[in-house]
Amino acid sequence: MIYPTGRAVLLIALGAPFAALFAAILPGLWAIGLAWAVMIALLLILDGLIAAKIGDVEVVVPKSAEIGMPFELGVQSKFAGMMLPRTVFGNIGIDEKLSSAGGLEFKLQRSEQNGNLFTGSGHLTPERRGTGEIGKTWLRWTGPLGLAWRQATKESDHDIAILPNISAIRSPTVQMFLRDSVFGLLVRQFRGEGSEFEALTEYQPGMDRRSIDWKGSARHSKLLAKEYDTERNNQIVFALDCGSIMCEPIDGLPRIDRAVSAALLTAYITLKSGDQTSLFSFAAKPELSTPFLSGSRNFYRLQQDAATIDYRHQESNYTLALSSLSNRLKRRSLIIIFSDFTDPTAADLMLEAAGRLIDKHLVLFVVLEDKELSDIISAPPESAADVARSVTAQNLLDQKKLVVTRLQHMGIDVIEGAHETIGTRLINSYLKINRRGAL
Description:
- By secondary structure, this protein is an alpha+beta fold.
- The protein is built from 11 helices and 21 strands.
- The chain has helices spanning about 5-25, 30-50, 170-180, 215-220, 255-270, 300-305, 320-330, 345-355, 370-380, 385-410, 420-435, and strands at about 1-5, 55-60, 65, 70-80, 85-95, 105-110, 115-125, 130-140, 150-155, 160-165, 190, 195-200, 225-230, 235-240, 250, 255, 275-280, 285-290, 335-340, 360-370, 415.
- The strands form 4 sheets. Strands 1, 2, 3, 4, 5, 6, 7, 8, 9 and 10 form a 10-stranded mixed β-sheet that branches.
- α5 packs antiparallel against α6.
- The protein starts with a strand and ends with a helix.
């Protein structure tokens, strides 16, 4: 396709006032303006015809990317002709999961190694999990005179799997913990504050004083402490609410994606620790229910399963979801529930369903801190609408605090914090439960 550039339109437009001037002074020369426009039009067509011809176009995309993490999308194309362009401008149609803008603009520059090859790239930050599709690619470049654009369209059938964000797992802090926790795993047992007695050892400063065996110490005339085997092979279930409340954004990403990242970070630790781990999601009805997996080799499978958790703009049915989960579990398990509470009626149903779980299982709730509500409350009001907004936000926070307090009175631990720290706090709670031998 060939069409005029801004330069060509400007040159044709500049001929109009001169043509009017000649027509007013010398009426016989009125045709000069028409001749000028025809000449520019002919030059435009000639410029388009002698412009470089496009060859193969290749879009280079990764097979997968993590939500919230930028990645590079590359484009390269070959051109043929005597007059190669200096710059090629492009645009790619992309899925809304990859960008809400619906497209990515980029430029191709001539390669120094291969004069006929033009390369370029752009960066995208996925905004939703799932499969992101790459659509058509449009490329355009000017002829040597700069009067005509040539444009080419190429179809693309590339897909990108948008996975949950596990960047926290690669952090130095977590890696250092894993290095220390699995050191010597094959030649020694984990010893800690479990329930199964293992051996007596000489008491060392820093040990829990409650572990001192006073009778054994009296017999051996030295201070001895009891060591226990830390339980392994426990069942850990991450129950994720993917209803409408959890689809609301926090710092640009939905709550459910923040919850999935924290769940996977902790799941990596549970798998490394030898516990059996499962994912469970629900909204109006139970959605995902994975089998119990053990061993770090199965972490990628959990990540793949977590990527299929959809965004459901429905009210969550806690009674159906948690009763279904309870029927599935055949032994005592640690159930970690990621949810939020804004509707008092739904919160009452959730409390009732959670109350039935704690008879057989250990339940832990994880609630993400709503920074937006806190900002609304702390912002100085400038109008009556700001005051009403602040009062409403305070009421919502008070309702959430009331539900958290009722959960704690039921004997359920609640972790509430910012999305940046919730994963670390959840790991600490899991390790504390493991050391205590609560399962």
